[in-house]
Amino acid sequence: MGHMMIAHPLSAALLLATTLTFAAASVTAQPARPADTEVHTPVPAIVTPGSRDGDPPSDAVILFDGRDLSQWVTTRDKSAAGWTVADGVLTVKKSAGNIETKQTFGSYQLHLEWKVPVDITGTGQGRGNSGLFMASPGTGDAGYELQILDSYENATYVNGQAASIYKQSIPLVNASRKPGEWQSYDVIWSAPTFNADGTLRDAARVSVLHNGVLVQNNYILPGETRYIGTPAYRAHGPSPIKLQAHGDPSAPLSFRNIWVRPLAGSSPAP
To answer: What is the CATH number of the domain that holds 202?
Structure first.
């Protein structure tokens, strides 16, 4: 026959007291009044929105307003940007190469409008090809590319169509308009950060609206764009924003109304 175990009355009392203490602490830790959960500082800065959707708000940095390329340089050698400005529109000059902003940026909100010529020819990647490099930490096509392409009834690999993070992320939907119609990108870019030894601390993230339609939803990038090979990171700081002069044989694209709102980690060009 086994022996019956009898709980010591003092142990039971201690357990009850401990339980009641935790319960009381839990109750008293809760806010007692509506005011206990009200926060009054810091007060957000006042920003006046544009009068229409797509117009720059009062705190935006205007990168192109239809007048000149004073905010841009040639990526290759930092000389004056050689693309064409006429009638309020910026048109790619392919022989002049990529252009990038004089100012460098970390995280930001960006608005950009682009148009494929109405008489565009070609197929696949050879039809209205360009790119928005959301950060350009090097020359050529170095950086993180949001693809620009005529993807209206123009088939290509889906991680290379318009609004893809090139060779990385397929857009959620194809929201492309017909050639000859203006299109828009609205981009929320969270720049990558790096440790002192150059290792990655926080990967880059991006959300994109194409013509007002969500096509990239807080996508986490595995690294910089690679035409061949696997994306990878290399340490860098605030970087220019770059537009691509792609070498495909089709007619060049046009841009207008480009502005950016720095969110964190941005700095003026030296």
So the answer is: 2.60.120.560
